[in-house]
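QUALITY CONTROL LOG
STEP: pairwise intake check
CHECKER ROLE: data steward
CRITERIA: each record must contain a sequence immediately followed by its structure tokens, with no blank fields

ENTRY 1 OF 2
RESULT FIELD BELOW
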Amino acid sequence: MIPRYTLPEMGALWTDEAKLATWVEVEVLACEAHHELGVVPADDLAAIRSGEAPSPERVAEIEEETNHDVIAFLSAFAETIPVPEDAQHPSRWVHYGMTSSDLLDTALGATLGRATDLVLAEADGLVEVLKRRAVEHWDDVCAGRTHGVQAEPTTFGHKLAQFAFAVDRGRTRLRAAREAVAVGSISGAVGTYSNIDPFVERYVCDRLGIGVEPVATQVVARDRHAELLSALAVLGASVEQLGTEVRHLQRTEVREAEEPFREGQKGSSAMPHKRNPIMSERMCGLARLLRSAALAAMEDVALWHERDISHSSTERVILPDALIAAHYQLRIATRVVDGMRVFPDRMRENLDATGGLLASSQVLLTLIEDKGLSRDEAYETVQTAAMRTWHTGRPFRETLAEIGLDVPEEAFAPERFLARHHVVRERLDALEP
């Protein structure tokens, strides 16, 4: 991912230095396990522990010759391990009984768990700010819209509440995906433990805080990674929905809310008056990347037999990029909601723009209940008056009167539609931030 969308704490997990350090962590833990089994002598283990993660430059230099990144790493790591005088090289125990995927997938499982935790923390923050601002604007009445056209009144708090619950569902999926993907396997070639005791696998994974792949084929099953990226894509789509709503509400013709616009910010190089919803647009754009990554992860599930490495090149791009993008997308979404300006007076103006047409459903039910009309008769009567209001601009109450219906003015009050709104508020209050 480009630096523009990479936050420091997430980016730090995906550097070459961090990758090699995690590889060293796995290899040292495996040596510790072999020491517990009586395979690795104490002095050799001490020497291995004193080794350092090799530099990416040195690994790359060796890889130029070997054309194998794990072998290059092992050779470079061995160079940092001290060799006692007149003794065998302690590095002979590094990677003992293991195959490349044992190292790669176990280290990756640990990194994915750590990275997903950062994304989950951002999701928690977004739920908290959505809930807080929903409560703040719970009673600010605005037009609900379907197909982009005014429908019935709702409140701005209700709008924000539905996004809070959407992100909450997204983080629930992501927690499950984190558990699924944060696993390792140290089971040797084709996963049969032919040259390694299963104790080593349990020891390493326990200390990394990850689970164990129950049946490895030499690699950890890739449906796990597809689940993670799918969860990120769905969560990203919910953030996109939020961004889309802000973009629509910030349009000049609507202007019921707008994302924060800090002092010194510029909206257009040509038009100084512009205040553009650039962060919300960015949220929407990043959601597209997350969906593409999920599709690529699905393609990685079906590998040949016990394994091939067709997934490897894809994952080197999509795993860090998706987690970095999701982390950043949630961070700016939180910033948008936290600093968003809301205009209740403008909401009222827009409610009044249709001359009372938002009350059509109430009038329809009144004709059915009080006048005894059939639904078809009532609908045709109300629609006739409504179309006159659309075409003439006269208030709906007047066009109703023209066809003989005297509807009290209080029937047009938007608050009439919110008599049971407390039900949704109680659900919001119970939502864990």
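ENTRY 2 OF 2
RESULT FIELD BELOW
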Amino acid sequence: MKLTFIHYPISIIVIIIIGYLSFFTPPQPESLTQIPHIDKLVHLCMYGGLTISLWFEYLRQKKTIHWASLFIECIAAPILLSGCIEILQATCTKNRSGDWLDFAANCLGVGLASIGYYYIIYPLHKQKRKNK
């Protein structure tokens, strides 16, 4: 298996956006601070979106699912990225902090997106390929 970045252009863009959002100092609008745990919802959406883009690009290239490579590319890689970013936030920045609950929200986003993609989008994708 040859993994090249050119096969994942959407995911690369999403990773760059996540990297930027993870290290810049966000504005603190008062309306958002009134919503409890809004940042956890943002984490869930960021990593859910990344996982969806990875699944989409993986299935666009492959005719069948190779479970080991799918797990590494679409599930383990976003979780590892998430953990690395949380560690970097805790150790290399003064304006951000690493948070276990952020990491948990990231993992939940990856898990929910994977389950949703597998049970909703993948059957449609498989049916579309069969009809071609």
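INTAKE CHECK: passed for both entries
DESCRIPTIVE NOTE, ENTRY 2: The chain has five helices and no strands.
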